[in-house]
Design brief:
Shape: globular
Number of helices: 13
Distance between the termini: 14 Å
CATH architecture of the largest domain: 3-Layer(aba) Sandwich
CATH class of the largest domain: Alpha Beta
């Protein structure tokens, strides 16, 4: 099959970029695929982080056609012409933010007029922090698609609510197979100068919907029952970080907490996951989470709130725990239970036995099968 994949990819940083590169590499093993990347993803005023780019990280030498400028419609037409020249049977767009709806809708309309089928791999149909025009933008995308691919049942439900009957595949979020543990837990802790006692990990961008405040309160609720631990909070804050620093202090867990407010590089990431015992995701809302894909790849159990599609990736009591959202005490008790019952070794074995079902190969095989039937 001849495919064009339209997505952000390296040298841009982040989970969407990394996963798109993995999908391209896997699909290219059996199909003819071109990757059309962005040369400008966002205008500077819309990007709250310090930088969009990788610096010397994994896949930073990834080869793609950096054609699309999100603000320049002429480049959208250039990308359409590249897709036509490649004689693509299908084009697959990644969609994760309404900002990209106009360019995808424009390109999809042009391509369908040339009898090229359009699939959209939807990360989030509607943003976690939704605005008044987001549903309208999403409907525009759905109206221009021949087939939709999602990575959770919750996103598929959003698709069907806005456009009932649209051809849709519900797959899963693949593992991030670029990451591998190079050191044992003890070696990783020594490399990072971390103590050899229970370590709880929060990882990822910090935004209100991700519920870091819930985790901090949950840890505060068990500080007298689990008084010998470290909470690693790692991720760049896309909001005022001082409120979290103040909350850590008011909850009385400053001496237990390491808060590193910055994007963690690919080279450091495996060390932190190897050093940690458990990943905790206290989200208020979710679709699916790429962070779970990292944790499972690194054989780490996950404690998460049961929102969106998170429960589709965690087997209760076997590979992690699910708790109700907005409940710091319940989250704290799940963390306490994990360490009191010494669950990591058993859960790690369960993850190793089941994670192959979330491989990039499995995802791409199902994707191609569904496109051939659509």
């Amino acid at each position: 099959m001849r495919l064009s994949l339209i997505s952000v990819g390296p040298p841009y940083r982040g989970g969407i970029s990394d996963l798109s590169a993995l999908l391209f590499e896997e699909l290219s093993k059996e199909h003819q695929v071109q990757f059309i990347n962005y040369k400008r993803q966002y205008p500077a005023f819309l990007f709250p982080g310090k930088t969009e780019y990788k610096v010397g990280d994994l896949a930073s030498d990834f080869q793609s056609k950096r054609t699309i400028d999100s603000l320049n419609p002429w480049t959208w037409l250039q990308a359409v012409n590249q897709i036509k020249a490649f004689r693509s049977e299908w084009v697959i767009f990644r969609y994760w933010n309404p900002f990209f709806a106009p360019l995808i809708a424009y390109m999809a309309k042009k391509l369908r007029r040339s009898s090229i089928k359009v699939a959209v791999l939807v990360d989030n149909l509607l943003p976690h922090e939704e605005s008044i025009i987001d549903s309208w933008m999403a409907r525009r995308i759905l109206s221009r698609a021949d087939h939709i691919i999602t990575m959770s049942k919750s996103v598929s439900a959003d698709v069907q609510a806005l456009r009932p009957g649209l051809s849709t595949s519900t797959l899963f979020h693949p593992l991030y197979e670029i990451y591998h543990a190079q050191q044992s837990k003890a070696e990783a802790r020594a490399s990072l100068n971390l103590p050899d006692h229970p370590i709880v990990l929060y990882f990822g961008l910090i935004r209100p919907y991700k519920g870091l405040d819930i985790l901090i309160r949950g840890l505060g609720s068990i500080k007298h029952e689990l008084d010998d631990y470290t909470a690693l909070i790692l991720g760049e804050a896309y909001e005022d970080s001082q409120k979290y620093v103040d909350l850590i202090k008011s909850e009385g867990i400053s001496s237990y907490t390491i808060f590193r407010n910055e994007f963690i590089s690919d080279s450091e990431l495996p060390l932190y996951f190897a050093a940690a015992d458990v990943l905790v995701l206290p989200y208020r809302t979710a679709t699916q989470s790429g962070i779970v894909g990292i944790a499972l790849q690194m054989d780490r159990p996950v404690i998460a709130t049961n929102v969106g599609g998170l429960g589709e990736y965690i087997i209760e009591g076997e590979t992690g725990y699910l708790v109700e959202p907005e409940n710091p005490e319940a989250l704290g008790q799940a963390i306490l239970r994990f360490f009191m019952e010494e669950d990591q070794e058993r859960m790690t074995a369960n993850i190793q036995a089941t994670k192959s079902q979330y491989s990039t190969h499995s995802f791409c095989s199902r994707l191609i099968q569904d496109l051939q039937r659509a």
